[in-house]
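Okay, is this right?
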Amino acid sequence: MKRLAMGLAALVLAGTAALAEPSSTELFFDKPYLASVAPGSKITYAYKHVTTRTELGESFDEKLEMSVDAAPQGASGRVADVDIWRGDKHGEAGPFPTESGNPISLVLLERDVREMAALSKGSPFYIRNRVRDALGNGTVEETRFDYQGKQVAGWKMTMTPFAADPNKDKLAELVGRRYVFLFSDEVPGGLYEVRVVTPKLDGSANIIETSLTLSGSTPPAGK
């Protein structure tokens, strides 16, 4: 697969002050999730994409492995690269800076933007901007979830970028697309899961379901 062009990487915003309950901007963009990840580490995610109609594209599973390495200009800095496997096909994304956020979430959202643009015949720039705006206005609440048999504390961030969009009629059933992110400082890389659900207009069933779930991490060799 072709190396992904990461348009959403340009969305990184200015830092915000830490809050008892973080804003959606802080959760997605600002927290330095990879600052404590040792160079040479790998963080692995399972990606699952399910569609119910052929015109919506194919269903597939992938493995995404993010490698965190020392930056060329200095060992104190870090960069991240993502390897993507779908069966015997291999793709790459990156390198990404790691000062804030988790690059895996950018990979998912850039892919999501391209999918919506293709299905709706709409502008990827318009869709990307709506997603960016929604990331700054998502709903945040405390949550707990299980990671490797242990309950961890975290935050759930939810957004529906197109629910009130003035051009939502052009997106047809994509207008109800809903995103749920789970973050925790207690899991490697800070991001545990992203679920993206697109329901039918009548809400009776989902026509597209995507999930990205942390499956494990590997320390540097020799550690």
